[in-house]
Structures are given as C-alpha cells and as structure tokens.
Amino acid sequence: MKLSSTAENIMTQINGKDTKLGDLRKIANIIKKNQELAMELWSTAQYLPRQLAILLMDKKLLSQELIDRLVTDIERHQEGEKLPLIDWLMANQLAKDKRTIAFMESWENSKSPLQRRTFWYHQARLRWVGQTPPSNSEELLAKIESRIENEVPEVQWAMNFTAAQIGIFQENYRTRCINIGEQTGLYKDEIVARNCTPNYLPKFIAIQVAKLNK
C-alpha cells in the first residue's frame, strides 16, 4: 500500500531506538480515532507503526473477520513482538467494547494460539483489575487442570496466569491453584530478575497475597 503524506510524516516521527509507548500515545492523542490511517500504518508490517495503528483503530469497525486478519499478521512477527502486539490490541481495543469482548470470549478453542491466549488473558484480567471475580472460576480451573500441560507455551502462560489470579483473589480456590503449579511443575525452575514475581504458582500466589494483606 502506498502511504499517504500523513502516514509518511508519522513514519518519520517513529524511531525504533528512541520511540517509547508513551510517545506513541502522545501521537495517538493528537490524531484520535482514524481507521483509514490505522490500516495504512498497519500495512507497513513494522512493529512500532502497528503499535500506533492499534491506538488509532475504531473499535466499532473491528469485525471478527478483520481481527482474524490482524492476528494472522501478528503471528508473522518475531517472538519478542508477537505477544506485546496481541496484548496491546486486547488492552486498547478488544477489552473496551461489549461486542469485541464477546469475540474474545468465543476464542477458547480457536485454531489460533494467539486468540486462545487472549481468551485466557482476558479471563485473568477480569480478576486483577479490581472487580468482583466472575462466576466461572470453577469451570476455568477444571479446564486448566485438564489442558494446560498440552498447550503451546504462549497459551500455557496465560492459563497459568489465570489460575494465579483466581488463587490470589478467591481464597476458596487458593489451595487448588497452588496444587496446579505443584503438580505440573510449570515455571518451577524459572529464574526471574530481582523484584519480579515468578510464574510458578505457589510462589506467585504467596507473594501477591502477602502484598494484598499488607
């Protein structure tokens, strides 16, 4: 796609070395919603322009068909870019409209690993944003227990994260969530940076519950 002068001007403002997400937000705040421009920037297939494109999209124009195309494009990015892009799309667009939330809630068994990851990450997010946990925790835990060890890593992480959030915020499920970590051994030997929370469920849950109880 040949870029418009507006898109070309924006591209000159985005420097891969120096541009931060906050800089992209400043640009987006000036432009506001602009689906056509968003699609132009998306067509570049570059990471930062696509981050900005997500901010400019009009959620009312995000059909399941278009989202499928976006996810397919994201899957072509290198490992260090795929997950930030799909999570950025979820947080800035998909989680902000009942219609697109319904799309996410239908992705549990999607053929796309990134869509399955988004289903689980959304379920986790519903719990740590501070609202009353949804009533489906029992159902989710049963599925996590039966499926997590056979999932691909990116989905496995999101399922594990969901179990962590259930265990943190719902005391009646805490022991069960800890047991998932002990039985699967997922992330048990993971080395994390200082002051970072480990993904191993027994440690993850214990650390976060202690913070809540301070």
What does this entry look like structurally?
- Helix content is 64%, strand content 0%.
- It has twelve helices and no strands.
- The chain is elongated and about 60 Å long.
- Helix 4 (47-56) packs parallel to helix 6 (79-92), helix 10 runs antiparallel to helix 11 (174-184) and helix 10 runs parallel beside helix 12.
Radius of gyration: 19 Å
Q: Specify the biggest β-sheet.
A: none
What's the SSE pattern?
A: HHHHHHHHHHHH
Distance between the termini: 54 Å
* Helix content bin: 55-70%
Strand content: under 5%
Shape field = elongated
By secondary-structure content and strand pairing, the structural class works out as: mainly alpha
Number of DSSP E strands: 0
Please report the number of helical segments. Answer: 12
- Determine the mean pLDDT: 95
Low-confidence stretches: none
Tags for this model:
single chain, 214 residues, mainly alpha, 0% strand
Helix-strand blueprint:
Layout: H1 5-13, H2 21-31, H3 35-42, H4 47-56, H5 64-74, H6 79-92, H7 98-105, H8 113-128, H9 137-147, H10 153-169, H11 174-184, H12 201-212
Helix pairs in contact: 2-4, 3-4, 4-6, 6-8, 8-10, 9-10, 10-11, 10-12
Short description:
This protein is mainly α. It has helices at 5-13, 21-31, 35-42, 47-56, 64-74, 79-92, 98-105, 113-128, 137-147, 153-169, 174-184, 201-212.
